[in-house]
Design goal:
seven-stranded mixed sheet, single chain, about 350 residues, alpha/beta, two-stranded antiparallel ribbon, 13 helices, globular, about 15% strand, about 40% helix
């Protein structure tokens, strides 16, 4: 039986940002089912679908559904705003409140958090917006617990994201939550963007001028080195030695360039590797844990519970569509092609 398309509603009203509309449309409005991506049904929803919604730069969005369609949506997305204090129509605010009351997932990109705050949906909840708008959100909506530094966060089935590129990160994360890491990676490859940045990563990353280009080159090289050896018990000292730096200097440079500590980055990559193996293969859990570098199934299970709020077995049951039962014991899963190859690394890259 064919699985129904995931229904996504883009909420439109005058003042929304064209960039965010484009991101939402690119992620959920492009048919990639021929590449194994899930089917989506993206609708542009407005109070008056017969009236084009003007956007900056002489652009206009043509809605195709009324706000009543939100009752059918699996996910409701609010774009950011050109003027972050733009008042949303009362009908839009009421429709968002009703959608949340029904248990529908809501998400806002960048200044879209201001729209959710206008609806009272962020009162007493944690939210994020662009780092340059944090004080403005706090001033105009003091009942919102504004998180000062993150890419995206969730509270009570309401997601908010920081500015611009973080909106792409959140959209891909929402795909990952509903359809698995492989679906998100397929879309990310099509968009030529990074498939995996965690919400806890800093949104504002300082890039100090290195004393020479060798520092940046060393960090890029050490990340590639680590990705090929996730199955090994890597430490920060190991990575620092490979980069030719002291552990303290290496950690400082790494965090400044990536926005996360080396240990957090390693954990993120191991979780992503385990997700791919669980989706693509039928390897036993201890073997998945070994290849992803967790050492034991217990450790992997603990990290899945704390970071993904699920277990490896539940994740596999939800997202393993085509297991590779005959994968060779020391083969690797190629993240671009999805094929199993005899590469030297025993984990998914």
């Amino acid at each position: 039986m064919k699985k129904p398309a995931h229904r996504v509603a883009l909420v439109a009203f005058p003042g929304i940002r064209a960039f965010d509309v484009s991101v939402i449309t690119e992620v959920w409005g492009t048919d990639r089912t021929d590449r194994g991506a899930p089917a989506f049904d993206l609708r542009r929803v407005a109070a008056d679908p017969g009236t084009p919604v003007p956007m900056r730069g002489g652009l206009a969005l043509f809605p195709d559904r009324t706000l009543a369609w939100l009752s059918r949506a699996d996910l409701v997305i609010v774009p950011g705003l050109d003027d972050h204090l733009t008042p949303a129509p009362a009908a839009v605010l009421e429709a968002l409140r009703s959608a949340h009351a029904r248990g529908t997932t809501l998400a806002a990109l960048c200044g879209g958090a201001f729209t959710l705050a206008q609806a009272g949906l962020l009162d007493g909840r944690r939210a994020i917006t662009h780092w340059n708008l944090v004080d403005l959100l706090r001033t105009h909506h003091p009942r919102v617990t504004v998180v000062p530094d993150a890419l995206f966060i969730e509270d009570d089935n309401i997601w908010t994201a920081a500015g611009t590129a973080a909106g792409i990160d959140l959209c891909l994360h929402l795909v990952r939550c509903s359809h698995g890491a492989e679906a998100a990676a397929t879309i990310a490859r099509s968009m030529v963007t990074a498939p995996f940045r965690t919400g806890t990563q800093a949104q504002f990353i300082e890039h100090p001028t290195p004393r020479s280009d060798r520092a940046a080159d060393a960090l890029a090289t050490v990340r590639e080195h680590a990705l090929r050896r996730l199955h090994e018990p890597l430490t920060v000292a190991d990575l620092a030695a490979h980069a030719g730096m002291s552990p303290r200097s290496f950690a400082r440079h790494f965090t400044a360039e990536t926005g996360v500590t080396p240990l957090r980055w390693l954990l993120d990559q191991r979780i992503a590797a385990a997700q791919r193996l669980l989706e693509r293969t039928d390897l036993a859990m201890p073997e998945v844990a070994r290849r992803a570098g967790f050492g034991s199934e217990v450790t992997m299970r603990q990290h899945f519970a704390s970071r993904l709020a699920t277990s490896p077995r539940a994740y596999r049951a939800a997202f393993n569509a085509a297991p590779a039962a005959d994968a060779a014991p020391d083969s690797a899963v190629d993240s671009d092609s999805g094929s199993v190859s005899g590469a030297s690394s025993p984990i998914a890259r």
